[in-house]
Every structure is written in C-alpha cells, then in structure tokens.
Amino acid sequence: MNIVGYRLAFISFLISVLAKEYSSMYSSKSFVKNIHSFFNVRKLIIVCSLLPVFVNAKIDNTTIANEDFLQCKVNLVERAESSGFSSYITETVIGNISPIKRVIALDKKQPEFTQTFEQYIKARVTDYHVRVGKNKLKQNKELFDRLEKQYGVPRQYLVSFWGLETVFGKHKGKMSVLNSLATLACDERRSEFFTLELLNLFTLIETEQVSVEQLQGSWAGAMGHMQFMPTAFLKYAIDGDNDGKVDIWKSEIDALTTAANYLNQIGWQSKERWGREVKLPENFAFDKIAFDQYYPLDYFKSLGVKKMNKQSLPIYDIQAELYLPSGHKGPAFLLYPNFNVIMTWNLSKSYALSVGLLANKLAGAKGLEFLQKEQTKEKPYSVAQMKSLQSQLNSLGFETGKPDGIWGPKSRQAIRSFQLKNQLVADGYPNTDVFSTMDAN
Ligand SMILES: [Ca+2]
Q1: How far is the CA of 165 from the centre of ligand 1 (A)?
Q2: Strand partners, 312
C-alpha cells in the first residue's frame, strides 16, 4: 500500500469509528450512557485533531523502511542478474518479495536472563521427546538400518536432531522463507550471510529442486523436518525415497537421509560418541587445563577424571575437551570431535549437549546422572550482569572482546585467568564468587 492508500484507509477507519460512536449515542436509551458517548466522541475528535502529525510521522517511518527495502530489492536484482539468474527470478520471484517486520524483532530479541544449563536441558530433553523418539526409531527401523550402513550416523542422533529441530515434524515453521531471508538479507547485521542463503534459494528454485509454493519455514529461513538452510539443502540434499524429487517438508525419508548425508559429509566419526558425562576428582587441578581446547583422553585420566560409575576412562586414542556448563558445582563433560560436528549444525554448546543427551536417552541411557542426583546450585545470571562483568574483566586486562552478555570461549578464558589470579576455583564460570570478588576489586 502506498502513502495515499494508508491515509485513505486510516481516514475511512476514523470515519467508521466516529459513525459507530455517533449512532450508539443516539440509539442508546440511557442518558448517562449518552453523556459518556458524547465524551467519547469528543475524545475522538481531540485525538483526530492531533492525528495528522502522528499519522504523518508514522507514514514517514514506514516509507523510509519501505524505501530501504525497495533499494535492497534493486540491489538483489542486480546481484541475481550478475549471477546469471533468469528473469523469472529477477522479476517474478524478487518482485513478489516483501519484508516481514516480526522477523527483525525475533532476530533482535535477546533474553534478559540466561537459562541455566539445567533449565535448558529440561525444556528440550523431555519425556515426550524420548517416548515419541523411541516410537520413531521403531516405526522407521529399516530406514535407519539403511542410513547407518550408508552414512555411518547412528540412528539415535538422527532422531535426536529431528526431535529438537521440529518435534519430529510437528513444528516446521509457516513463514515465507523467501520473505524471511530477504528481510534478514536487507538488514545490516548479517546481510551477507542471508544474501548468500537467498541466492542459493534462487538456485534451488531456478533448477526446479523446489517450487516457490513449498517454501515455508522458520523466521530465519530454516526448512522442513530437519530445518535445513538453502545452502545445506543445495549441497547435501538426497532423494531418499527415490521419487525423483527431494522434499524435505513432506518426505520424512528425504529429510532424514539428507540429515544423515550432511552429518557424514561434515565429518561424523561413525565409531565415536559425542562425549560423555564425567566425574572430576575432589580438588581437580583446574590450573592444568584450559577450556575450549583439546587434550588427549589420557591426559584427563592422569588428572583423575573418571566415568560416572567411578571406573576409569577407556583406553582410546581420542582428543577431548572439558566442558562445565554451569561451573564446578554442576555436571562435567568430556567432549569428543563428534561434538564439534553437532556444533557445525548449530553453533551452541547447550544445543549440542541436548542433541547428545537426547540421543543417549533414545539409545536407552538413563540421562544426565548429575541432574538426577543434585539440585541446581547456580542461579541464572542476567545478561546485564554478564556484560558488566565482561567490561570489568576487559579493564583489568582479561580480554573478553566486546561485552555481549554471552558466556563464550573468550569469556571463559578471561574468567579462568581472573579466578587463577584471585585463588578461586578456576572453572571459567561466572559464579557468585567471581561476581563478589570482582565487586571487591
Ligand atoms: Ca523424494
């Protein structure tokens, strides 16, 4: 709708409201009500007299946003033309694209509080996921037999991803992927990433691997049962049910086969697990390990790290990193290279842990032993607290990068150094000791 359209629509809306108020004033039998209605009309008239300014201001903002988007579409057309796309893409497909405001809001949304690890896992690795997941394993036994043989990815991982991405296909997303991706491509923050995804989506359309009508997905452009982005679709899609077409929305077989192929191609080690929950000895030598860094499994053995049943770790030539998602008072994990494969799918350690833990449960394990025995001892910290801790660490020379409120590798490293310097348990976690020691500094 253009500006004139907006104004006309708004004026007709006002007239209808006024007419409604006016008619109710005269049809109403109660005098008191009439008086109220009279004042309501007055209020409306006063509001109306203020409206031109307000409406104009609003229209101007929308216009600016629309102009930006139109300019962005012109750039997209140029880019698509220079990449050799047909006029169907440059005129029809791009021509029909429109921005979705909600996508930007969702993309900018930041939680006030960081979920604790326990909260995160409990919300995702649920009894429902385990029960339905186990049924899916039974129902699709032959498919998983085949996928394991062909791609070397154990079935419980495929079902775990499926459960976590879309609750086994229940929530595949209903937004227009073209509009979502275009909205994000035309936003300055991650423009190049989403522009490339959009161009790859054009390739999928141009080569008739997908039709425009199919393209529903998440607000960030992830599609189908396993929530693939266009680039992953383009590179790894497999027609698992051999009907001549890859349909990751309707064909569970196509979606799961594509996921198995993807994990295989990005380096899944078929004979290895993702990692394991471990027991640290009392007074573990935190000064002897850095986080987000691999060491031979033997090294952890020499530091007294054990399996949860207190038996020694296996003799196996593998690299591992130690991860304490809620510090030394919470569970401890050794992460193996497959964990990084999971993180290629989604770059979040908590997400990757939920994939691993759900996979374990689907394969019959009891789940996280620590959470069954212990209560949460750490309270969630707020994003604001974390940001201020990061800038305090920066000013003391423990470099965390630009404060963002996220507990990432740099922050872990900086907190660990700060803890070592202040004779605290060097677990890299922003616990109450860290906050209070910093405040006393
Ligand atoms: Ca197919």
Answers
A1: 20
A2: 306
Task: Among 1.20.120, 3.30.70, 1.10.101, 1.10.1660, name the CATH number for the domain at 383-440.
Answer: 1.10.101
Output the CA 143–ligand 1 centroid distance in Å.
14
Q: Which of 97-106, 158-167, 363-372 has the highest mean pLDDT?
A: 158-167
Pairing of strands 295-296, 319-323: antiparallel
Residue 50 φ then ψ, to 5°: -85, -20
Mean pLDDT of the chain: 87
Query: pLDDT at residue 96 above 50?
Result: yes
Q: Which position has the higher pLDDT, 371 or 164? A: 164
Cα–Cα dist 141/241, whole Å: 15
Instruction: Assign domain 117-169+243-380 one CATH number from 1.10.4160.10, 1.10.530.10, 3.40.50.880, 3.40.50.10860.
Output: 1.10.530.10
Query: What is the whole-number distance in angstroms between the Cα of residue 233 and the centre of ligand 1?
Result: 13
- The predicted-structure confidence for 167-207, as pLDDT tens digits, reads as follows 999 999 999 999 999 999 999 999 999 999 999 999 999 99
Helix/strand/coil for 97: coil
Q: Residue 256 Cα, ligand 1 centroid: separation in angstroms?
A: 11
The confidence score (pLDDT) of residue 83 equals 97
What amino acid occupies position 145? D
Give the DSSP per-residue string, 257-302: HHHHHHHHHTT--TT--SEEEEEPPTT--GGG--SS--EEHHHHHH
Q: Is 59 in a helix, a strand, or coil?
A: helix
The alpha carbon of 254 and the centre of ligand 1 are apart by a number of angstroms equal to 5
pLDDT in tens, 146-166: 999 999 999 999 999 999 999
What 8-state DSSP symbol labels residue 382?
B
Domain 86-112+173-222, classified CATH 3.40.50.10350, yes or no: no
Cα of 162 to ligand 1 centre, how many Å? Answer: 18
